[in-house]
Amino acid sequence: MFNFSSKTVVDRKFKITDLYKQMSASKEAKKDGTMIESIVLKNVLSPTTLYCDADKAIKEIYVFEITVKERYVPETFIKELDKSIKLHTLFNVKHEDYELSMISYKLGTQKGKYWQTNWENEDDHDVPLVSSVPEMYKYILSKFLAYPPFESESVEEYVKRYNMLAKLDFQIGKTTSAIAHETQSKKRFEYNARLKEYKVERERFLKSDEI
């Protein structure tokens, strides 16, 4: 999905049985493991390999490449492996010429929602030069999320703002549908007032980097 610098390449291949021990793999994760042909730590994105500033919140990003036997996403395996890794991660799942990527923003020991792409057969994205590891992570995240980041916001602020926008989009869609099916004028008035509030709030998050 991403064309990282050759300076970041590690290409460290793991035995899946060793990973089972590291992650205290569940039965479901081991079942997923039967669909995996290989797992490789492909890149390490760090201040040293990116030639950028260090950061306490996001120190390094590990990029894993998982080759599978068929077009199947071993989600349970990935999530349990991710839980055993304290650093930020990106997982690229490959089958023949197709690739799917998964990522979850970690805040301390807490992991958020996982985002993933569709199976794609496209050229990788060239990544920009960055001044810090979080800046690279924010760029990576932006390829998974529907809304771009503000230049001035942190990764945490970006994820928080995106989650608010996703929630507002859901509320706008739900309220719009309710208006279309409502026959009582009083209820329609209430729904329209609520819809207007949601849209104003949505515009605020789209135009301002203030959380």
CATH topology of the largest domain: the name is GMP Synthetase, Chain A, domain 3
Characterize the main sheet. Answer: 6 strands, mixed
CATH architecture descriptor name of the largest domain: 2-Layer Sandwich
Specify the number of helices.
7
Helix content: 40-55%
Strand order of the largest sheet: 2-3-4-5-6-7
Shape: globular
Query: Number of domains in the coordinates?
Result: 2
Query: Using DSSP, what is the number of strands?
Result: 8
- The secondary structure category is alpha/beta
Order of helices and strands: EEHHEHEHEEEEHHH
**In percent, how much strand structure appears in the residues?**
25-35%
Low-confidence stretches: none
Question: How far apart, in Å, are the first and last alpha carbons?
Answer: 30 Å
Question: What's the CATH C level of the largest domain?
Answer: Alpha Beta
**For the residues shown, what is the average pLDDT?**
94
Q: What is the C-alpha radius of gyration, as a whole number of Å? A: 20 Å
Plain-language structure description:
With 211 residues, the protein is of the alpha/beta class. The chain folds into two domains: 2-130, GMP Synthetase, Chain A, domain 3, CATH 3.30.300; 158-207. It contains seven helices and eight strands. The protein has helices spanning 16-23, 27-33, 47-50, 75-83, 133-142, 155-181, 185-207; strands spanning 2-3, 9-14, 36-45, 61-68, 88-95, 98-107, 110-116, 125-126. The strands form two sheets. Strands 2-3-4-5-6-7 form a six-stranded mixed β-sheet. A two-stranded parallel ribbon has the order 1-8. A hairpin with a 2-residue loop joins β5 and β6 (98-107). α1 (16-23) packs across α4 (75-83) and α2 (27-33) packs across α4. The longest helix is centred in the last third of the chain and has 27 residues, at 155-181. It is globular, with a radius of gyration of 20 Å. The model has no long low-confidence stretch (mean pLDDT 94).
